[in-house]
Design goal:
alpha/beta, Nitrile Hydratase, Chain A, 2 domains, 219 residues
Length: 219
């Protein structure tokens, strides 16, 4: 992506202490923030709120999540019309039933389907809200100020920088993730994949295609 920056888009209802408050790029961390985090962590451990093992267990769990699960979800949606309909209607119960996922304490999830008429792109204009349970850790560019600010203003240009050029007549809809809502995109199924099984189809689904900045791989 280019270095052109249109600035932040700030939601007035979010204050400075809101978990969905704007973030800066991660080129530098402020030393005082790191010290505060360390002090708070040590205090909570001292009070028995959690242990060092709990922290490591959560880190391991977070790092174990990858876009591979999301790719399986998309492949299932491509071959199973009933599952796709359930996913689009109410994603969390559909995922919990089909993939035995416990999403009870996670933000709401909306699944959007790309078509020949409409292409969806996901961003988080204030920070980096992202369906981590499905896609793992968000890429650095997703958290960058440049992507967050530009994609809502000039989405077609941003997609082109990712190598994604869509027909002029196809509408591009940018959806903004929040602290309470995450989004997952079902990309268009590539032509020539009729009769493919889920495993083979999943190999065509990339993280970027589930965010909407790319399309599924062409076989």
């Amino acid at each position: 992506m280019s270095t052109h920056d249109h600035g932040d888009h700030v939601h007035p209802e979010h204050g400075a202490d809101d978990p969905h408050a704007p973030i800066d790029d991660f080129d530098h961390y402020r030393p005082e923030s790191l010290l505060m985090e360390q002090a708070l962590r040590e205090l909570l451990m001292e009070q028995g709120v959690f242990t060092a093992e709990d922290i490591q267990r959560q880190i391991d769990l977070t790092e174990s999540r990858t876009p591979a699960l999301g790719a399986r979800v998309i492949a299932r949606a491509w071959v199973d019309d009933a599952f796709r309909a359930a996913l689009l209607a109410d994603a969390k119960p559909a995922l919990g039933s089909a993939f035995e996922l416990d999403l009870a304490n996670t933000p709401e999830l909306t699944v959007l389907e790309n078509t020949q008429a409409v292409h969806h792109v996901v961003c988080c204009t204030l920070c980096s809200c992202y369906p981590r349970n499905i896609l793992g850790i968000p890429p650095a560019w997703y958290k960058s100020r440049e992507y967050r600010s530009r994609v809502v203003i000039e989405p077609r240009s941003v997609l082109k920088e990712f190598g994604t050029e869509l027909p002029a007549q196809r509408e591009i809809r940018v959806v903004d993730s929040t602290a309470d809502m995450r989004y997952l995109v079902i990309p268009l199924r590539p032509q020539g994949t009729e009769g493919w099984d889920e495993e083979r189809l999943a190999a065509l689904v990339t993280r970027d295609s589930m965010i909407g900045v790319a399309q599924a791989l062409v076989p």
